[in-house]
Design goal:
about 20% strand, about 220 residues
Length: about 220
């Protein structure tokens, strides 16, 4: 009999609906499915975005410096839009993706089921990456090869990163750019940049409000 091969992470049924159930325009604003007009989400919509650390999205981006390209892998929580893990490197290898994933796990220490969704890049299909998922009881999920929309929410974040950091100047060194990326993520994006899709809260503020609501409901 032929040996069974593990196909690795597959698309989780219903994940696309969870991530894209409310189509988003610029800066996270929802679009009305009937009119196409952008609108601010109501309280009920925010209530139904899911649970913190329920779904993480991950992807890799790159940008040139005078020394050569810098690659960045980030992990985003779908519920709060917070960047929960990141890593940078001069090479786009499995170690880059594994480092970002390990950081997210260490920072968040999730206790429930976490779906980690990515495209079908080799870094996310590597044995090392899959081993970290399995060891921490995380569920891997990969988008279809032909479906660029599966990771659109992550691409939206990278568009902001490009506008606010990557394209602001010519970067002399990889270290200079890596430092700028981390400062912008932690100081600005996670803690100061208010998002309409979060009810005009920052990701950090949204998580506090989310936790308070759950405490009151308990």
């Amino acid at each position: 009999a032929a040996a069974h091969r593990d196909p690795g992470p597959q698309a989780v049924p219903g994940l696309s609906d969870l991530v894209h159930g409310h189509q988003r325009g610029p800066e996270g604003r929802r679009q009305d499915s009937a009119t196409g007009r952008q609108r601010r989400p109501g309280a009920e919509e925010i209530h139904h975005v899911g649970a913190l650390d329920g779904v993480w999205l991950t992807d890799i981006t790159e940008h040139p410096t005078a020394e050569g390209k810098l690659y960045a892998c980030c992990i985003k929580d779908v519920c709060s839009n917070r960047i929960v893990g990141w890593a940078t490197s001069s090479r786009m290898t499995r170690h880059l993706a594994v480092s970002a994933l390990r950081q997210a796990i260490a920072r968040r220490q999730p206790s429930g089921t976490v779906v980690v969704h990515s495209d079908r890049g080799g870094q996310f299909r590597a044995r090392d990456f899959l081993a970290v998922l399995k060891a921490n009881k995380l569920t891997g999920s990969m988008g279809r090869v032909s479906s660029a929309g599966d990771n659109a929410a992550m691409e939206s974040f990278y568009s902001l990163l490009q506008k606010n950091v990557l394209d602001r100047k010519r970067w002399a060194t990889r270290d200079e750019l890596a430092t700028a990326i981390v400062i912008w993520i932690e100081h600005t994006y996670n803690n100061r940049r208010r998002q309409r899709g979060l009810g005009k809260l920052t990701p950090a503020e949204f998580e506090l409000a989310f936790a308070d609501r759950n405490d009151q409901a308990a």
